[in-house]
């Protein structure tokens, strides 16, 4: 087994050898040992934009599978995307598969006719993005969710929002849509949960969630408020409506970082998002008192599968002319997925 120093040296050598041919995007949830080698750090939107712009031949994505797929969709045929560990998926993206989506679409269309537009969080498979693109919809990220939902409601009367019910509910609520005008589609039971009049229905939320952000709870907020009366609470909008409502602020990872970095010295913060980012913010802002909203730091296990050994193996193989773990989205899926992504990126 190699030491961290040896692995780091392999990465440094491979990066030097591949030069401009290599681009490494890294999501803010990646471990420090990985993110130190990223050419660009960012939230989901920034990484999609930067992947669309790069001219590098090899893109080694330090993030999760749907992000690497998005990069493949947005780059040219002669550019190749790799994921250092194929097990780095996203449990939320896995909560909506294409067959379930087709069933839901058919059933909902029977109920409300052609008055509905599909919108998907980028945290979804390429096949879902393609379905959405084919049906006139768009992708969104937590950075532009409000604008994109507003746009969607200029296109049709109601939205099917995949796959994160919490981001969907929080965003719709921010736009002034009452909770009574939101329904939940359960893809396992193939059932719509809604008590109101169908004419009033505005947003149908897919019953998916992030298993990391569901760990930030109302009792966590009550404990922080009781123990630290001056503490500000900032969370990611993948947290539940109740948690977002009781927090002081909510936003994408980029928004969280910018808020903490520009906060006054001595200010106090409880953060409700993935552990690696919270730890990094604690380390990089020693003049502020920062804690995790849930005292048991919450890791995204799949993000964490990208580690020093996998990154070193992936880069070393590329430097030796071999490709490992390529992510290739089929042309027919890529075509309509591009439309869904471009409706977002061109805004
Ligand atoms: P953002 O970085 O866009 O806020 O996304 C968070 C996330 O959960 C990515 O999987
Ligand atoms: Fe998926 Fe949640 Fe992990 Fe993001 S933090 S990759 S949404 S499981």
Set down the secondary structure blueprint.
Blueprint: H1 4-18, E1 22-23, E2 25-27, H2 32-35, E3 40-42, H3 44-53, E4 58-60, H4 65-74, E5 80-82, H5 98-112, E6 116-121, H6 126-134, E7 138-140, H7 145-155, E8 158-162, H8 165-174, E9 182-186, E10 191-193, E11 203-206, H9 218-227, E12 232-235, H10 241-246, E13 249-250, H11 253-261, E14 268-272, H12 275-284, E15 289-292, H13 308-319, H14 331-345
Parallel strand pairs: 1-4, 2-3, 4-5, 6-7, 6-8, 8-11, 9-11, 12-13, 12-14, 14-15
Antiparallel strand pairs: 9-10
Helix pairs in contact: 1-13, 3-4, 6-14
Structural summary, described in words:
The structure is a single chain. This protein has 347 residues and is an alpha/beta fold. The protein has 14 helices and 15 strands. It has 3 domains: 4-89 and 303-333, NadA-like (Rossmann fold, 3-Layer(aba) Sandwich), CATH 3.40.50.10800; 93-206, Rossmann fold, CATH 3.40.50.10800; 213-292, Rossmann fold (3-Layer(aba) Sandwich). 42% of the residues lie in helices and 16% in strands. A 6-stranded mixed sheet has the order 7-6-8-11-9-10, sandwiched between helices. A 4-stranded parallel sheet has the order 13-12-14-15. The protein has a 3-stranded parallel sheet with strand order 1-4-5, sandwiched between helices. Helix 12 links the parallel strand 14 and strand 15 (289-292). It is globular. The structure holds 1,3-dihydroxyacetonephosphate (13P) and iron/sulfur cluster (SF4). Iron/sulfur cluster binds at residues 64, 90-92, 123, 210-212, 238, 274, 300, 302-303. Keywords: 4Fe-4S, Cytoplasm, Iron, Iron-sulfur, Metal-binding, Pyridine nucleotide biosynthesis, Transferase. [4Fe-4S] cluster binds at residues 90, 210, 300. It catalyses: iminosuccinate + dihydroxyacetone phosphate = quinolinate + phosphate + 2 H2O + H(+).
